[in-house]
Amino acid sequence: MPVIDPAGQKHPEGTLVDKYGRRISYVRLSITDRCDFRCTYCMAEEMTFLPRNEVMSLEECLRVATVFVGLGVNKLRITGGEPLVRKDAMWLIERLGALPGLDNLVLTTNGSQLDRFARPLRQAGVKRINISLDTLNAERFRKITRIGDLNKVLKGIEAARSAGFRRTKLNVVMMRGTNDDEFVDLVQFALDNELDISFIEEMPLGEIHGRNTTYISSEETREQLARRFELIPSTENSGGPARYWRTPGSESRIGFISPHSHNFCDSCNRVRITAKGELYPCLGQNDAAHLLPVLRTDSDNAALRQAIVDSMGIKPYGHDFTKQMDAPQVVRFMSMTGG
């Protein structure tokens, strides 16, 4: 029988639905906690990465994705760390792109490897790419990423366009005193290059202090941009948490992801899988289901499927970041959860 949520919407039988009646149709799958950058808001400067035997193999990643798709998930985002530093990542991505029922295979990347991988990603069936880009200033980029090269990312953006990707999106983490003087320039760059762009409120993940002085709300940034651009609200939905605006004469979308000021929990349709097989039903909570032991003790996907279904019982209604800015309850770094 179909599942009916509290609002009266019917969900097909066999799909993944949490205890609040929200259908889970979107999974963010981290395939590595490693990265070739060390962004200040994402990880510590001296990171200790997972031992390889504690990370899901690519075959195990494929099993997890296959079961989720069988449960009605139709959007899968590959994340890291930086997913393209994972050896043989394309082996997995090619097989994910061929999964029947998976309508939307997408990738989040820092862009450093796209000059090499953009065309193979397109051929493998990846539909869209999100690229983290917090500044257009090379010196500032190096400071934020600690070791990154802005030119490599800009070449990656161009490689994605040349490979045929459209609606590539820039993700900008808003940080007062760091990049808040560049928001207009970043939007203009997106408009000039036919890119979408989303501004993301900084989230209190990991033992990184000082966020109470660097936090900027989406509303403040939108007011700043409205002094330069005509912003028209849009009802478009990309399947994620962003709320979009448009500006006349451009196809680019300007989005805001607001986990603090306007959380999106009531319509949450996603879960995250870490590189070590932890299923986090909520980014802002610590409860997780551990899939790796199931993957390694039972070759029958029936047990894995049941573990995923059971995890819906620990998915909370929402998160509360408002009191966690400088002393977060969630102490894992963003790179550990998956971007």
Number of strands: 14
What is the 3D form? Answer: globular
Give the N-terminus to C-terminus distance in angstroms: 35 Å
Number of helices: 11
Count of all domains: 1
- Average of per-residue pLDDT values: 89
SSE pattern: EEEHEHEHEHHEHEHHEEEEEEHHH
Computed Rg: 19 Å
Q: Looking at the chains present, what oligomeric state does this protein adopt?
A: single chain
In CATH, what is the homologous superfamily? Aldolase class I
Give me the CATH fold name.
TIM Barrel
- Sequence of strands across the biggest β-sheet: 9-10-11-8-7-6-5-4-3-12-13-14
Indicate the percent of residues in helices: 25-40%
What is the CATH class? Alpha Beta
Regions with little confidence, pLDDT below 50 for 5+ residues: none
* Percentage of residues in DSSP E strands: 15-25%
Task: Please tell me about this protein's structure.
The protein is of the alpha/beta class. The chain has one domain: Alpha-Beta Barrel (TIM Barrel), CATH 3.20.20.70. It has eleven helices and 14 strands. Strands 9-10-11-8-7-6-5-4-3-12-13-14 form a twelve-stranded mixed sheet. α6 links the parallel β7 and β8. α1 runs parallel beside α2, α1 crosses α10 and α3 packs parallel to α5. The radius of gyration is 19 Å and the shape is globular.
